Fold these 4 entries.
Entry 1:
Amino acid sequence: MCISHFLFYKPLILNSLFEVFAEESSKQVGGVVNKTKSAIQSYRVGLLLEALIIAIPYSIRFRSIIPIITVLLGAALWDVSGMFLAIPFVGILKIVFDRIPDLKPWGKLLGDTVPTHHKGEL
């Protein structure tokens, strides 16, 4: 059944391929390929940011009020981009505070617990 469909659409497929790979349309095809490449790259960056924004609050135990305050302060400082970047920034600060002995009280202030064993430690 599949081969019969291919044979039926063979002239259409071949004409389309000849048009796409013709020398006259190479600039148009190049433009489409470049736009597709940039769209895929933007999508990948968006997925990375989404993973950071979603994964950090779940992997780090914040107090309930900290993400709300963080997003509001981020919005006040940097508008919408600040809202997205505020939680990962505070998450990184909490990790640093938890690992430096003199800053552990700040880590306790941001989160419910201060971990005693960290990933990557022997």
Entry 2:
Amino acid sequence: MDRSDGHPLAEVPLILVITFDGFEKSAKVCTGSDGSFTYAFEPTPGQYGEYKACAIYPDLMDRPVQGKFTIASAVKDRIGFSPASYQLTTCLRYERQIEIPVTAGSEASATNLGFVYEASDQEEETLPQGIHVDTDDPVPDLGPGETQTITITLWADNTAEENTDITLRLVSDEAPDIGWGELPIHIQTTDTGPVVTSDPSRIETGLALDQSVTETLTLKNMGFAPWLILPCLW
């Protein structure tokens, strides 16, 4: 903007800075012949709330708030879980546990929340032979915005197929029939080969700019054959 008369300036390079929850994203923009510009912003999935924005000259360090906008969650009244599907490799007759975090939206809550393993949810409407599932005790109460972890125990006996697909359904007192969603699990069994497990089964972490973080993941071979460890390339 021209300070002498207040009119927008044409063809001026700017830095658009968008801030959310203490983190910022920046993009180079340039004004058009009328002194305005447009920018299509794509938020990171799951980052809902108020954003602050400013357009500054490239050499400036200040971040004055020149505008605000809000991105609302479309699932604020839902119960979600992650991952949306799971692949499991296991030895026959060996129990495996998987942990599934469940999260309530900002306007959602649930009582007696847990996964069920029922024949009606399977592809052929019958429970696959040789697959045993313990869905753990339900979560008594999950409040708005809260996250809790549900542990599922699975094992396959000698009658199980080498590859089996099963489906679990997340239900609660509020949604006992349709439920909150289905969790497909692909199970591959072996009786002789290596079976690599990890503890924990998954790691969720994060860090800010110019920071570092260290996490520990323990790998074990629970099978009956050696596991060839290949070097990691970073």
Entry 3:
Amino acid sequence: NRYREIMELNGLTSTEIYPGDLLRLPGQTEDTPSTPDTSPTYREYTVQRGDTLWKIAQSQLGDGSRYREIMVLNGLSSDVLTPGQVLRIPDSSGGSSSAPSNPSTPSNPTPTYREYTVQRGDTLWKIAQSQLGDGSRYREIMTLNGLSSDALTPGQVLRIPSSSGGDSSTPSNPTPTYREYTVQRGDSLWKIAQSQLGSGSRYREIISLNHLKNETVYPGQVLRLPK
């Protein structure tokens, strides 16, 4: 609310200003205006095809969750990027702006994720189950990839959380916590839960484990059952 001080100091009668306007700020003198620090606190990065704010923050800052710092520094109101767009990246070292870091040779911090290519028939739950050992962790995959829905496309490359930060070519292969069952003609979720789990009322566990939206099943459908 100190904007009134700026208006009075500059003799403004309205709050409307334009790009290129020079304003005096409280604490500055007219004959010896303060000289701003010319050392930038950022470096520049050129957006590549397929980049996301999370991916850029991960590769340039070592932590995808720092994407909000990039949004603030660049005055972005959304996460939509365009190839060729130049972004300012926070740089605590304050290097010279005449020699910004080369975006083609960024620092290479140990990644906190590994990559997985979506296969036909995959769901976020299935991927989380097979790659992380727990289907309910699918939200971590959504957050890491900046997904707003669970729609996937075969061939899509997803980042999978990796606590070890190991080589993405050798992902861990956790022991599954489920077994598979192929739906037979005449089966229902209640019937399957009764015959396979000993209690028909456990059908909700099957719904949850398979991320089903309703109770409809089809002959030949493969379901995951709790072990």
Entry 4:
Amino acid sequence: MKRYLNTLTAAVLIAAPLAAPTVGVADKAKSAVKPTIAPRTEDERASDRVVRSEEEWRALLTADQFYITRLKGTEKPFSGKYNDFKGDGTFVCVSCGNELFDSNTKFKSGTGWPSFWEPIAPGRVVEVKDARYGWVRIEIICNRCDAHLGHVFDDGPRPTGLRYCINSIALDFVETEKIEKEKKE
């Protein structure tokens, strides 16, 4: 199935995030003070799923992170810390630490959100039909904790032709050097 229904739909998709609810500037100050990756229980480690109540998510995430990842919000274009970010490492889910995207698959899409042409491994993200706002698009959620990450479109570069358009607030970044050190320990 085509991810875009027609040219008119594509135009709406580009403009829609501007009309959709966005994260406010007032929430940004709060974002800097809370930890980003929630500790997991023994049962969650065993099953590799992270399941929490709304109250637990609110306590563990900043207001911005909760809005984006749990309420399916959208940050303002060109406002996210990873939009123009260049680094060697792995982008992980801000809610659970699940490895999502390798920095080598990040590309400049010009859309205002960090974009990747494929996840780090099959099954790390789940595609869900999203019919909100009167059109159909494909939502991307974390396979471990169901956090809303963004959407995927079929206008990306080779080799996949896909553009995973992700909210910066839904991500954390771990440098390759730190990953290699943790693997040795």
